[in-house]
Structure formats: C-alpha cells, structure tokens
Amino acid sequence: MLIDTHAHVTAREFDADRDAVIGRAREAGVEIVINPATTLKDSRRAIELAERHPGVYACVGIHPHEAAGGTDEALGEIERMSAHPRVVGIGEIGLDHHYDFAPRDVQERVFRAQIQIACRRDLPIVVHTRESMDDALRVVTEETGLHAGWRSHSAYPQSRYPGPRGVFHCFAGTVDEAWTLVRLGFAISFPGILTFKNAGDAKLVAAGISLEHIMLETDSPYMTPVPHRGTRNEPSRLPLVAAALAQLQGLSIDDVARSTSYTAHRVFGVGAPPQPRITYRLRESLYVNLTTRCNADCVFCDRKGEAIIKGHNLKIDREPTAAEVIAEIGDPNAYREIVFCGYGEPTIRLEVMKEVARWVKGQGGRTRLNTDGHGNIINRRNIVPEMVGVIDAISVSLNSPDPVQYGALMRLDHTVYFPAMIEFAREAVRHIKSVSMTVVDIDGIDCERAKELVEKDIGAVFVQRPLF
Ligand code: SF4
Ligand SMILES: [Zn+2]
Question: Residue 291: is its pLDDT beyond 60?
C-alpha cells in the first residue's frame, strides 16, 4: 500500500476525469491520497472530494502564492473548516521567494497565522518553500517554539523521534537542513524529482536521511516522473517515485512502501499502524525479534518508545518460542541470512536463539547475531564457543571506543561492561569467521579511534551507521 501525501486532485487539470484518476491510483496500489489546498475555495473543494472518496483526505490552507487572499476573515474560515473530520492537516502553507506572487511580509503573516491554527487545532502543517528555506525555518522555529505541545504532543511521547507535526513537501534543501527539520519534528517528502537526471540535492538528501523521516508524494498535476515527463501527473504514478527512493536508500520497494505509509500515519493519522512482528524482512534478510528485554538502556534506543524500524513494529508483548519463530521463517534459503536482532538483546534468550539457529543451519541457511556483546555476563559463562557451527556471523555494538562515553551512552557501569564487550569481541574473532563492530554517528564519538581499535587491535570489520 502506498500513500500519496501531496496531490492536487482538486486542480482544474482533473476536471474532466477526477473520479477516474482516483480509481487509477487505487489500481496502482495508491490507496490513500492527501489533497492539500491552495485557496479558501480550493479548501472547500478538497473537503468535498474527501467526503466523496473514502481513500481521499483533505488539507485546508492558503498557499503562499495566494497569500494576498489571507484576510482575517479567510483565515477564520480556514480554522472553522479544519474541524471537518476529513481534514488531516493545514496546507499547503509557506513561503515562496522564487515567484514572490505576494509580498514577502504578507506571505510571512499568513504563514504564521496558519501555523498558529495548526497548533490550536493540533493538526500537522504541509509546508511549501522555494528559495526560502532559511526564512521558513526561522518562522516555524519561532511559531512552534511558542507551543510547548508541538513536539510533546506526539502519540508516542517516549519515542527517540520527535513526533512529526508536519512535512516540508517537495523538499529541495540540503542534507543538513533536512536533519534540522527532523529534529524540529518534521518529515520531508519527495515527488518525481527523484526520477530526474538533474535532481539537484534531492537525490543526496533522499539517500542521506533515514527512511523513517521520508514520505512519498506526486505533487500532481506537477512534477511528472520519468518516463512520463511532459504530461499531466497523477497519483497512479507514485510507484515510480517509490522505486526511485528504494534505489537511493538501497532498500526494496516493499520496505519503502511500508515505512513511508507508516510515517504518513504518524504525521496525518491516516491508514493503520503496523502490528507487532516476531520476524521482519529488510532487503534480502529476515530478522528475528526474540525479545524486547535488554540489559542496557542506550540513550539513542527506541526500545521503550515506538520500537518501529522501517515500518516494522517490534514491540511484541510476548516472547516467541523457537517453534513459533521456525514456523514464521518458513524456508531460510529464501533469504540472504537470518539475523537475530531487534529492540532487545538476543543473548538474553540464548537457548531459543541457538535452537532456531541450529535449525536454520540444518536447512542450509545462514545466520547472524547482532548483540551488545554482554552475552557472557548475561549468561554467566563464555557463550561464544557454543555458537560455533550455528552462528555464521556476529555483529557487536561498540558504540564508543572510550569506556566512560560507552557507559554513559548505554547507561551501564563502564568498568564492568566495556571490558566485557571487548573480551566478547576478541573471543568472537577467535571462533567465528565473520565479526564486525558498529558505532553510530553521534557527535563526539571518535570514529577514527574506534576504527583503529576494531581493525588493528581486535581484528574485526568496522561499521559506522547513522544515528536516526
Ligand atoms: S543494547 Fe540495543 S536493544 Fe539494548 S538498549 Fe542498547 S540499542 Fe537498545
Ligand atoms: Zn502542492
């Protein structure tokens, strides 16, 4: 299922065949379309359309091009309309310094007023910028900063991700600007520009930002993707955008569909949240989620928050038996590898893990353990030799080469756990063919030193991955 988070189906380009366009979207797997508005009149049309089609939702708002129409009366009307049950956001609103169809001070006043409406009505905002990123960032920071509920109002207050309260659509900024927005509580969305040869920074950003913060849009009737350039765009072309994003992220189209739909659910409340999983697929690998228990409490971990990875919900309320896991795996040869991983430490369930792994090996499959490296303390013995022949590869979270920082990040006694983790890694290198150690990209972590420790001292493969 795909969600087109930004399509102007109310545009007059669709006057002749609007219902057919929505039907074609559905046939193409685009089950939900969000229709942002540009004017007061268009806001009314968006609501009417959403009333007629169960898969269509409306946003109400005044586009920066139309900001001259943003009188107090019109803004009052937008606020009244926003109470309609089919309205899921305020938009599209923002600043356009490329065309400057309305004077900049007027654009800013109308933008601010509509953010305030969104804050009062607890709705997300859909932001348009063009050559105005700095000013837009300043305005949203100021306006949302005045509302304490902007970030904490998330349905998932414990999440490591701030609750997204809006989207910068057709994002055309830099990777740095995108991360700034993510930290402020925004998602970003991309249209068919990802299929263009000359896409500016868009491809860099789409590849460099974690998928969790990205949504898909067509921006119909504009931004027609390759190979349909030069024709009217419509929501049924969204799979082309999904495919381009999948390629940039090195993920499958399924991964992109699931994750972007979930992000759209978090932002707009449309669609349904995913059910908890004991196994989950990413790329060509199948991951096994044995537990949500962990001996650590990492500051960057979302175990106690939503525990969602790329649209997979890992928040199981009961730990699965080996038989249940084996039944769900089915044929392990259908995957590149079976990975014991999740929001929890797999060696807490060592016996179940070994039983499943032994079965996978018996079927001719490959296995990997992702661990914090504390399995020997957890199980009060050296468990590494027990994994010979059942676990093909081990990945240990190094987190930091500095013991004090390590303890602070994992909220553990570093004098006990840091040396234990290092010893576990050394022991793994002695017994297991493929051993890697990972650090997450957090400010202040000495990645050079980590690399040296892992490669020269321990003899494992060094892996660095982004925090969010
Ligand atoms: S070790 Fe892993 S599962 Fe445990 S708290 Fe840290 S990141 Fe989360
Ligand atoms: Zn738009």
Answer: yes
- Distance, in Å, from the CA atom of 91 to the CA atom of 124, rounded to the nearest integer, reads 9
Rounded to 5°, the CA angle 280-205-300 comes to: 50
Residue 62 in tokens: 């005044």
- Non-local (6+) Cβ contacts of 229 within 8 A are none
- Are the C-beta atoms of 115 and 94 separated by less than 8 Å? no
The crossing angle, in degrees rounded to 10, of helices 414-431 and 403-410 is 100
Q: Shortest CA distance to 47 belongs to which of 3, 9, 12? A: 9
Considering only CA atoms, which of 182, 413, 378, 163 is closest in space to residue 297?
413
Residues 6+ apart with CB under 8 A from 318: none
What angle is formed at CA 418 by the lines to CA 417 and CA 419, rounded to 5 degrees?
A: 95
CA 182 to centroid of ligand 1, rounded, Å? 22
Q: Starting from the CA of residue 412, give the closest ligand.
A: 1
Give the pLDDT score at 273.
86
- pLDDT per residue over 84-137, tens digit each? 999 999 999 999 999 999 999 999 999 999 999 998 898 999 999 999 999 999
* Token pair listed for 429: 């290198």
- Quote the CA–CA distance of 30 and 41 in Å, as a whole number: 26
Q: What CA–CA distance (Å, rounded) separates 1 from 33?
A: 11
Residues with CB under 5 A from ligand 2 (ion): 92
CA of 371 to the centre of ligand 1 (A): 9
- From ligand 1's centre to the CA of 436, what distance in Å? 17
Specify the DSSP class assigned to residue 401.
S
